[in-house]
Amino acid sequence: MKIQLWSIGKAHESYVKEGIELFTKRLNNYFSADWKIIPSPKNAAGLEPEELKTKEEEIILAQLKKDDYLILLDERGKLLNNMALANFIQQRANDSTKTCIFLIGGAYGVSKGIQQRANFTWSLSSLVFPHQLARLILAEQLYRCCSILKNEKYHH
Amino acid sequence: MKIQLWSIGKAHESYVKEGIELFTKRLNNYFSADWKIIPSPKNAAGLEPEELKTKEEEIILAQLKKDDYLILLDERGKLLNNMALANFIQQRANDSTKTCIFLIGGAYGVSKGIQQRANFTWSLSSLVFPHQLARLILAEQLYRCCSILKNEKYHH
């Protein structure tokens, strides 16, 4: 199974870049994993939130394949503990999912179309994190879950 | 009110240092806030978890003042959303708390003595984060809460 980490917006900011690279590299010991940063549409700052989300939807849907398993990170999603997240990833691998995509939405979240396309909606926390920090947390958590599945020491 | 961020262990690792400094600086626009890194006891690696926690308890209690309001970060604590956390901080300021201390425990958590001394136990998430990353999340969340209390744009 391949893992892809998609995020709308700018490149990783310097305050999270080293950590994202560190944990993504470690994650790659378990699954082929890489980031796709989807730039915001042109003139994003001049668009109303709903227009922006519609534009982002077009860009995202054009890049998704039919059998991609899409996990949307959204504060209205389901909270999971580490064991539940690890089991969730194991189930995808067991399901013969080819590509599991974790999507961090844009500044205003994502459109209804993307919400409907998502196979699962996951909330990292009852706290809201900036999107850049969510990237770092996501990379670390996926690495953590893999270490749990392999009974390694990292998580204790 | 002063805010102090206490953490047991090593100095900030490079992958979180820039972010911790960034958000701590911003937090300082609202409250005087700084970090105290409490080094692990000598020979920590050779101690059993309970011995280590007892040693850490001595060090921490020796540095706490009687009227310090101690918030322990622990996965068994209460989950808060941003509004609840912001209100919690506002209440401490209204209570005339002089110093509000947020404590991130050691590798095995903290002793029962510290748990009992804590005025409040807060869980950042149903996910477990490494202690270094918890420092970054804590700094960002406290800044976020201050921006909420001032009706600023950062949180939306």
CATH superfamily of chain A: SPOUT methyltransferase, trefoil knot domain
| Count of distinct strands of chain A | 5
**Structural class, judged by helices and strands of chain A?**
alpha/beta
DSSP helix count of chain A?
5
- Principal-axis shape of chain A: globular
- CATH top-level class of chain A: Alpha Beta
Stretches with pLDDT under 50, minimum 5 residues of chain A: none
Total individual domains of chain A: 1
Overall pLDDT level of chain A: 95
Largest interface, with counts of residues having CB < 8 Å to the other chain, equals: A-B, 25 and 25 residues
What is the percent of helical residues of chain A?
40-55%
Report strand % of chain A: 15-25%
Largest sheet of chain A: 5 strands, parallel
Q: Order of helices and strands of chain A, N to C? A: EHEHEHEHEH
CATH architecture of chain A, please? 3-Layer(aba) Sandwich
Oligomeric state of the chains in view: homodimer
Q: What is the CATH topology assignment of chain A?
A: Alpha/beta knot
Q: Could you give the distance between the termini of chain A?
A: 26 Å
Report Rg of chain A: 15 Å
Keywords:
homodimer; 156 residues; alpha/beta; Alpha/beta knot; 5 helices; 43% helix
How does the SSE layout of this entry go?
The structure is a homodimer of 156-residue chains.
Chain A: E1 2-8, H1 14-27, E2 32-38, H2 49-63, E3 69-79, H3 82-94, E4 99-104, H4 112-117, E5 120-123, H5 131-149
Parallel strand pairs in A: 1-2, 1-4, 3-4, 3-5
Helix pairs in contact in A: 1-5, 3-5
Describe this structure in words.
The structure is a homodimer of 156-residue chains. The first copy, chain A, is an alpha/beta fold and 156 residues long. Chain A has a single domain, classed as SPOUT methyltransferase, trefoil knot domain (Alpha/beta knot, 3-Layer(aba) Sandwich). Chain A has helices spanning 14-27, 49-63, 82-94, 112-117, 131-149; strands at 2-8, 32-38, 69-79, 99-104, 120-123. Chain A has a five-stranded parallel β-sheet. The longest helix of chain A has 19 residues, at 131-149. The radius of gyration of chain A is 15 Å and the shape is globular. The model of chain A has no long low-confidence stretch (mean pLDDT 95). The interface between A and B is medium-sized, with 25 and 25 residues.
